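Much of what follows relies on a compact textual record of a protein's fold. The record below shows the convention in full:
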Amino acid sequence: MHRIHCLALGLLLGVGFSAAVHAAQPLPPPPFGLSEVRTGPEADQRVAWWREARFGMFIHFGLYSVAGHGEWARFSERIPQRDYARLAEHFTPDPKAPEAWVSVAREAGMKYMVLTARHHDGFALFDSRANAFNSMRTAAHQDIVREFVDAARGGGMRVGLYYSPLDWRFPGYFFPDLYLESAEAMRDQYHREIEQLASDYGKLDLVWFDGGGEQWLGFGGLEFDWASWKSRDRNKPYSGAFSWQDDLVAGRLRQLQPRILINDRTSAPADWRTREGADRLGEFDNGQPWELCVTLAGAWGYQPGAQPRSLRELVLLLTNTAVRDGNLLLNVGPAPDGQIPADQVARLQELGRWLQSHGKAIYGTRGGPFLPTAQMGSTRVGKTIYLHLTPGAEETAPPGSIVVPDFPGGPKLRRARVLGAAADLPMRRAQDGGVRVELRGTTLGDPTVIVELTYEGSVMGLPIASLDERVRSISSPCCNSFRRFSFSPRALRF
């Protein structure tokens, strides 16, 4: 059955143009346990390359890869340290594996990479001078961070390291006041290892912290009320004697690496906000840089047989992140030998091929000027706005036409076409204002349809527009039926 739809992007008259979320405006307080994010012109300049990159690879790799139960195996399965340490006897990855990671990342269209230099289990992937539990002093006899940094830099990738200040081997993490000496020893390890990573491995572009900050102590803290143990209320700040002294670490990092970027999972001011998991995609925010991190398959650490997300899911995740003005950091968990599972490599290559033909609507763009809805979103760069139409899984065709609103006092729309197509799309003035762009004959061969709108002048200064979205059917010779063009959240595994 043939159906024709019209998607009208009508502005709410009088209040249609809401103020853009500028860095100079007051921002809400950060989520509990996260630090403030720097904003303003200088901060924007620091993160400019990162925002332009839009897409990166996260790599969780360590002793937990041998266990194959995810990166939290030691804690969740209550494995004693002496037993967990024996996994190092079987951790002898291929020294060339980081070169393969870089090759896969490039094929996938990623622009930066982040490796777990040390996770919560305390096992360092470098020759730590503060911690003998590391890959150089065990069976591998490898400085995997060195191999990674050299491979990534040689492959033209921006280089990032993940680091967790917390360490499950220290009881002071769980009870920092009761075991203050232990907590201070853990802090000393943290300071010394960050100093080493920032000093010995050349230029680092970013450090991705996890598990630090006073409010993360003991996973929210443990309290005893003389009747039972309970978690400290998540809205109740830690008030004990211990401090990570994150400001000292951040200051030293910036001294050693003046252009380095730091995320918000310490107690020191950060350069970008972290959103973890597809269900934390959240709302549009162009006031503070932010990044969504998700796994490609299963847990963050290696799980044999974990099925990768579909190409459709990945495209929608990347699209829905970009139109909200964020970055996507997509995680892989290599096997113990360092190899990324073949089915995951194949899926990343598929995504890379999609980006080869659609990447100009992602890379180097900013979200807006239209706030995203369930049916569409937008990115922009220079004189171009890209409309990303995101249909549900059951849809077979995009709407028959879209009405693009005028920007009062702004540049005029001069051309419209489907991204990658040679021919322009028919345009005419709409009866209620704006320009009607005809999409008849367009098919959904891809997870999204991207309409490239070219204006006579720059669109970067346009205010963020709240959209009053209406879907109307247009009668056709065969029928008057109507089916809503919608986005299915199930596609993102929410």
Summary: The two ends are 31 Å apart (CA to CA). Residues 7 and 471 are 5 Å apart (CA to CA). DSSP finds twelve helices and 20 strands in the chain.
